[in-house]
Design a protein that fits this description.
The structure holds three protein chains of three kinds.
Chain A lengths: L1 H31 L6 H19 L2 H26 L8 H23 L15 E4 L2 E4 H23 L1 H11 L1 H6 L4 H24 L10 H14 L4 H21 L2 H18 L14
Antiparallel strand pairs in A: 1-2
Chain B lengths: L2 H6 L1 H22 L2 H26 L7 H20 L8 H6 L14 H25 L4 H21 L1 H4 L5 E2 L3 E2 L2 E2 L3 H27 L1 H11 L1 H6 L4 H27 L1 E2 L6 H14 L6 H19 L3 H16 L7 H12 L19
Antiparallel strand pairs in B: 1-4, 2-3
Helix pairs in contact in B: 2-9, 3-9, 3-12, 3-13, 3-14, 4-6, 4-12, 6-12, 9-10, 9-12, 10-12, 13-14, 13-15
Chain C lengths: L1 H23 L23 E8 L6 H20 L7 E8 L4 H14 L5 E3 L3 H13 L4 E3 L12 E3 L4 H14 L4 E7 L2 H16 L3 E8 L7 H10 L3 E5 L4 H11 L9 E3 L4 H7 L1 H4 L3 E4 L8 H14 L7 H20 L4 H7 L4 E4 L2 E5 L6 E2 L3 E5 L5 E6 L22
Parallel strand pairs in C: 1-2, 1-3, 3-4, 4-5, 6-7, 6-8, 8-9
Antiparallel strand pairs in C: 10-14, 11-12, 12-13, 14-15
The chains are: A mainly alpha, B mainly alpha, C alpha/beta.
Membrane topology (chain B): Multi-pass membrane protein
Main location (chain B): membrane
Protein name (chain B): Urea ABC transporter permease subunit UrtC
């Protein structure tokens, strides 16, 4: 029973990390069709932002709270730069964006190595996040609870933004029918830029969360990028709720299979399940119906 | 002379093959040390993969990010055979297995004791995997981006499986330390030279096959699938079958390349088959010109050569160079260097005032120009 | 038409290739075992001699291997300033192994056959060493490998200046047994070093009445250790034996601490965490945990004080020194000793002269074993302090003779296969 509960929690926690990493992609890939391989490096940039902020401020608790918005801005600005310099001219060639952004990710990784050194750096977790909370004899690490809450908050804020604000309406309109949106007076260029800013900013936030879990080094992003894309693909393009469900299902599946086998086998089995699932539902869990052929 | 006429003029083709054969078989061995010639052999293996990528990606529009898997299948099948052939006859267990466990040879290794089975498997296994995967994804009309991400995930899973089973695959070290190749010693320079010649022949054969496919009716259909899949479907063709065939051909080319890579380089490890090498294989194709016949080959060889010589001088320089190449070439020159030719011709003709009226139209820079 | 043309081309070329293959190549059976290409092209006629440094300067292992490169460079500069090796200045050819076994093999071949170096220093992961081994054997060249490893290997073309298992893992187990550990949990990365190490640990545990309560492997680069830590916690062993590699250590120790596990309740003994890695893990996450090596920056000896001071002078006051760095530094001096004893740079002469060569290394006096090409070293178990450095807690007292196949340990029979 305890094992059952703690594994369920481990799975949800793994899912929440996946979700944070994938949420920004659900916007940029799901809504705009850009396959941004550099998303992982935006996550890395967020993590290094946390490192820099902590070195400036010293206090672990305060710096965590400052890092979250700071990393959002850093990630967002990187995304804006990428969009303006390269991706802007490539919206009609979505597959090529994958290669271009892969190049960007190589450069950013090497840049991180040259700036911060090849050795990993440490961001200390604040005192109020160290250790576990005991419930029914099961220990829940506080950092994982924090990330779970952070992921839920991010989803709620993003969904509200899309559902209730004028900006959200413009984004949805652009996704569903770009030319109609344009002829209705929406500046799709501006909408694209803002969407990319928000999506990349979320990657930065994910980076800060990851500093609580593992090492901060130049290859931080590469560990998450493929999984994050799989979450969006399984969830179905164009919807936040698909990504949420997919992330938690994949997280729980990974941790349960890992408990009875090994981490390597779990990864491969989960992948096989994804391929099988996409056979049944090639468009993912949720489908946005459009009348277009492609 | 444009590409189309080059592709169809048989004398031009014969001359082209002859020049390439002389360059690779006579000039290169005369100029290069045996070490550098071995490196060139390795580049030729990458070039073979590139021919297939050019077909599937350039012509078929399938962004194949998992070619490392097929390369790895060919390489590991060959490596398993070589390890088994090297094993001491008394036990029949390869050295690395005896070191790490006492369980003996896994059952699924046994077929590869036979050289014939190995050679057949090098072609059949990549084909089977590609057909299965191709039909599964293309028949369900999985979108291009999904296919790219799936093939990438496949490469990741393949590498994880290889690393996770060191008893049977050598783990992260991979398989190396081969003594012989079908009975011939790999330490004898004459045999290494022969391997190089085989690689040259295989590459030229693959280019010939690719050319044949490109000029055929099938080649037209493949391009049509890339540019307007729905219309091909409405015309009564099956785009899934057309695309799967190109994917399978590319897979076989990668498999054969892997199989030759093993004796030439002397090692294969999961680092040669994962996500990053799989994407790395694309950069040469993109630079050379993905839709052309020779662009991928020349691009792959040039990139591999640049990597070796750059990394000999600046350790971290190659990463920057590779990243920048991806960014600049794909974003600003999607046709690769091959697309510069018509542009340059265009400039030249514009410089001549008498020809301004009929100056050649500059083809659009998008990938569909050829 | 065109098809037949292409076919004819292919057919002609294939036949000629086959002819070449059958015509003049040597069969495996008539290949002399020493290797055909062993002539060597090392040029020792001038006032300098070339040596090769082969470390990963890019890729995931660059983190660790750059430090080894730095200390090799330091040793070479010191040797050159003091007059060189046998009167010849050292000319360094540095190559990047790029953290990939294939690249290591290729670059090793380039250093031996292209640059004609007298010896190569470098390599870190077992994969890189195993990839280079056939290259050095077939070209009959020399490699000096500076990192602790899983043993069960000895090549006449490799000198191993890091610890083999009986100088690191076995003493670590002795230490845990002495501290009263009755059960162990094994956590490692999924590759050759942890798997071989755990095989040895299980044999030792069986012979010494220690229960192994679990054995978990994480893929290289794995970052989510919640499930593995849950298993460790549920198993409730007396100690954890950790053979994780690289970044995984960071995620593991953060998870370990957050799950409420401590060094007092369940110590984690690590064999791959040195001074250099402590900063990235965060001192607070790992303080008090034991590690096993043969050298720490805190060793109190004149040689070490000089080494640490020289290193900081060359690379900055915040830099730390660690076991593999010291072993690399030592390896260059040992090679110098061998060359000067042999009065020759030739591989065969060095192999003959190697046995008994000693050096007063920062870790203490080390002696080369001419039989298996490892060196006798003192085992030290240290604890990570608040200062981020490692302080010796237990020592084997005297140098332990290297025994890569564990032949002198009755419980280990059958391990070397």
């Amino acid at each position: 029973m305890e094992i059952l509960l703690s594994q369920l929690f481990n799975g949800l926690s793994g899912g929440s990390i996946l979700l944070l990493a994938a949420l920004g992609l659900a916007l940029t890939f799901g809504q705009m069709g850009v396959i941004n391989m550099a998303h992982g490096e935006f996550i890395m940039a967020g993590a290094y932002t946390a490192f820099v902020v902590q070195n400036l401020l010293g206090d672990a608790g305060l710096s965590l709270l400052v890092s979250l918005p700071a990393a959002f801005v850093v990630g967002g600005l990187l995304g804006l730069a990428l969009e303006a310099l390269l991706l802007r001219r490539m919206y009609h060639r979505p597959l090529d964006t994958l290669l271009v952004t892969f190049g960007v990710s190589l450069v950013l990784q090497q840049l991180a190595r040259d700036v911060f050194g090849t050795a990993g750096v440490d961001v200390a977790a604040p005192e109020w996040l160290s250790g576990p909370v005991e419930v029914f004899g099961v220990a829940f690490p506080k950092t994982r609870l924090f990330i779970l809450v952070l992921a839920i908050v991010a989803v709620v804020v993003l969904s509200a933004l899309l559902a209730f604000t004028p900006l959200g309406r413009r984004i949805r309109a652009t996704v569903q029918n770009r030319s109609l949106a344009e002829s209705s007076g929406i500046s799709t260029r501006r909408t694209d830029r803002i969407t990319f800013f928000v999506g990349s900013g979320l990657a930065g936030v994910a980076g800060v969360a990851l500093t609580l879990m593992g090492s901060i080094s130049s290859n931080l992003g590469t560990n998450y990028i493929v999984d994050a894309f799989l979450v969006v693909v399984v969830g179905g393009v164009g919807q936040i709720k698909g990504a949420v469900i997919a992330a938690f299902v994949l997280g729980v599946a990974q941790s349960w299979i890992e408990y009875s086998t090994t981490a390597s086998i779990a990864k491969v089995v989960v992948l096989a399940l994804i391929v099988a699932f996409l056979q049944a539902r090639p468009q993912g869990i949720f489908v946005v119906r459009t009348r277009s052929l492609v | 002379m444009n590409l189309k006429s080059f592709l169809t003029n048989r004398w031009a083709v014969a001359a082209g093959f002859a020049v390439a054969a002389v360059l690779l078989l006579v000039v290169a061995p005369a100029l290069l040390s045996s070490f550098r010639l071995g490196l060139l052999g390795k580049y030729l293996c990458y070039a073979m993969v590139a021919v297939g990528i050019g077909l599937a990606w350039g012509r078929g529009g399938m962004l194949v990010l998992g070619q490392g898997v097929f390369f790895g299948l060919g390489a590991y099948i060959m490596a398993m055979h070589l390890k088994l052939a090297d094993a001491p006859p008394s036990t029949g267990v390869p050295d690395f297995m005896a070191l790490i466990s006492s369980d003996g040879v896994p059952v699924w290794w046994e077929p590869f004791r036979s050289g014939v089975v190995t050679l057949i498997a090098i072609v059949v296994v990549p084909t089977a995997v590609a057909v299965l995967l191709g039909l599964a994804t293309f028949r369900r009309r999985v979108r291009g981006a999904y296919f790219a991400i799936l093939s990438q995930a496949l490469a990741a899973a393949f590498a994880i499986l290889l690393i996770g089973n060191p008893r049977s695959t050598g783990g992260s070290t991979g398989l190396n330390n081969f003594k012989g190749f079908f009975g011939f010693s790999l330490r004898d320079p004459a045999n290494r030279m022969t391997l190089y010649v085989i690689a040259v022949v295989a590459l030229l054969a693959m280019v010939a096959v690719a050319r044949q496919l490109m000029v055929s009716r099938y080649g037209e259909l493949l391009v049509a699938c890339r540019d307007a899949e729905e219309r091909v479907r409405f015309l009564g063709y099956d785009p899934a079958a057309i695309k799967t065939f190109a994917y399978a051909v590319a897979a076989v080319m990668a498999g054969v390349a892997g199989a030759l890579f093993v004796p030439i380089v002397g090692i294969v490890s999961p680092n040669d088959v994962g996500i990053v090498p799989s994407i790395g294989l694309l950069i040469g194709v993109a630079i050379g010109g993905r839709t052309t016949l020779l662009g991928p080959v020349l691009g792959a060889i040039a990139v591999a050569w640049a990597e070796t010589s750059l990394s000999e001088r600046f350790p971290s320089g190659w990463t920057y160079a590779q990243g920048l190449l991806f960014m600049l070439v794909v974003a600003f020159l999607p046709g690769g260097l091959a697309s510069l030719r018509p542009i340059v011709r265009g400039w030249r003709e514009r410089l001549r005032p008498s020809h301004t009226a009929d100056s050649a139209p500059v083809p659009s820079l998008s990938g569909s120009s050829r | 038409m065109n098809i037949s043309l292409a076919r004819r081309l292919v057919a002609v070329a294939t036949v000629s290739a086959m002819g070449l293959l059958v015509g003049c190549g040597a069969r495996v059976s008539d290949d002399p075992s020493t290797g055909a290409a062993g002539a060597g092209c090392v040029d020792t006629s001038g006032s300098s001699v070339k040596i090769g440094f082969l470390n990963s300067r890019s890729g995931t292992m660059a983190i660790s291997e750059n430090t080894v490169y730095n200390s090799l460079k330091l040793a070479a500069d010191q040797i050159n300033a003091a007059g060189g090796v046998a009167g010849k200045q050292l000319a360094i050819v540095a190559e990047d192994g790029a953290s990939e076994p294939t690249t290591f093999a290729e670059k090793a071949e380039k250093l031996i056959r292209g640059d004609c170096v007298a010896a190569v220093f470098g390599g870190w992961t077992s994969s890189s060493r195993k990839a280079m081994l056939p290259v050095f054997e077939s070209n009959n060249a020399l490699l000096f490998y500076p990192v602790q490893y899983e043993g069960l290997e000895s090549s006449k073309n490799i000198f191993y200046t890091g610890a083999t298992t009986n100088q690191q893992i076995v003493p670590a187990l002795d230490y845990l047994k002495e501290k009263g550990a009755k059960s162990l949990f094994l956590v490692g990365s999924d590759y050759v070093f942890p798997q071989t190490a755990n095989k040895i640990i299980k044999a030792y545990a069986k012979a010494n009445g220690i229960e192994v309560k679990g054995e978990e492997y994480a893929p290289l680069g794995h970052t989510d250790f919640s499930t593995i830590v849950s298993k460790v916690k549920a198993a409730d062993a007396d100690a954890v034996f950790n053979t994780l590699n690289g970044d995984s250590n960071v995620a593991f120790f953060k998870e370990y601490k957050n799950a409420g596990l401590t060094a007092d309740a369940m110590p984690v003994l690590s064999v791959s965490i040195a001074e250099e890695e402590v900063g990235g893990i965060g001192v607070g996450n790992i303080v008090g945990q034991p590690v096993a090596w043969n050298y720490y920056q805190t060793i109190d000896s004149a040689q070490n004080k000089k080494f640490v001071a020289d290193f900081k002078a060359a690379y900055g006051p915040t830099k730390v020194t660690s076991d593999p760095m010291e072993a690399a530094y030592t390896s260059l001096y040992l090679w110098k000793g061998m060359v000067e004893k042999a009065k020759s740079f030739a591989v065969a002469d060095i192999q003959k002269a190697a046995g008994g060569v000693t050096f007063d290394a920062p870790e203490g006096k080390v002696t080369v074993n001419g039989e298996n090409h490892h060196i006798a070293k003192t085992a030290l178990i240290g604890k990570i302090g608040q200062d981020g450095l490692i302080h010796t807690d237990w020592t084997s007292g005297k140098p332990i003779e290297p025994d890569p196949y564990l032949k002198s340990y009755p419980w280990a029979t059958g391990l070397s296969g």
